[in-house]
Design a protein that fits this description.
Largest sheet: 7 strands, mixed
Strand order of the largest sheet: 2-4-3-1-5-6-7
Structural class: alpha+beta
CATH architecture of the largest domain: 3-Layer(aba) Sandwich
Number of domains: 3
Number of helices: 13
Shape: rod-shaped
CATH superfamily of the largest domain: DNA integrity scanning protein, DisA, N-terminal domain
CATH class of the largest domain: Alpha Beta
Helix content: 40-55%
CATH topology of the largest domain: YojJ-like (1
Order of helices and strands: HHHHHEEHEEHHEEEHHHEEEHEHEEEE
Radius of gyration: 35 Å
Length: 385
Amino acid sequence: MPLLDIAPTDFVDIAVVGLLLWGLVAWTRRVHARMALIGLAFLGAFYLMARQFELQLTAWIFQGFFAVLVVLLVVVFQDDLRRLFEQIAALGLRRKASRPGEGSLAVLVRGLHLLAQKRRGALIVLPGREPVERHLQGGVALDATISEELLDSLFDAGSAGHDGALVMRDNRLERFAVHLPLSENREELGPGGTRHAAALGLAERSDALCLVVSEERGTIGIAVQGRLEILADPGELSDRVQDHLQRTGALAKPGGIEWRWLGRRLVEGLLSFALASGAWLVLVPGAAEEVVAHEVSVEVEQMPKGYVLEGVKPATVEVTVVGPRRAMVLATAADFRLQLDVDAKLIELGRRTFEVSVESINHETDLVVVDINPKKVRLHVRKEQ
């Protein structure tokens, strides 16, 4: 059995592929391309079926389509692919997210509550592990210590850059009056205006946390991981910011991994590892060569007129075939036929023993016939009266 031959390195192989598939599923969910991925999976299945049934023209068309598709995917998802590579680099370099202190967070929360009470629009960005500089345009360098008074003055309607975003890194206010990319996801934005579109736009393109205050409704919203949520209770702001910082590793969290968050993705993970295991079974042990022997019946054709075949000895021969294990699973003895063409003149001259060879075996499998035993059969023939 293939599973009995599995080695520790095979477990690592399956785990790596499973993680890659899990990451692919998470990526397609984030870029809202899940249906596109399912469609590609169906096309891939059709292509494999075309190869299996030797539909040469169909397989050729699919090959050309997939070649063009790779270029199209790079063009359409170039920003998302770039972010994916940035995430890999951030993990590899162990890049740390912004780490505001408890005092700075408390000042930030109080300042946002004050702005919401005054109905002053505000937009504050807390970068994560991923670089956000390529998404930021313009702005004025501050490098200032955060305070409620400074936040109040920066987002005052009389301030020249109050419509822009404020970038806070660690405990410092880094840049002000920054322009962010706007989201086009109207369904997620709801009644939100330009500030909310800017907050969601950056949250769609990075792991930054964006806090936005609506000057029309006096509400506080949080944009993160491509989602925008308006807090029904402004008192939740501090807890929500803490949760995000703990999830991104900016703050140490007692208990380590957030199992509740992991549990929500458990089904996707199990499915990914199941697919990886199935692919391993098909491609790795399934590709290993095996040698199998089948008992195949001897069929005699073209008996000369005036002669009747009473039997063949032996009635079956042992046919040895070689091929990949997955092909062995699909092949049976019924797929092989030994057709013996006898020469009428030899029968008339009394010849009853004939040689058989691997060329006498007809089959339509992916296996190769390498031997046949015995290599001679004897016919029992009688002459008609």
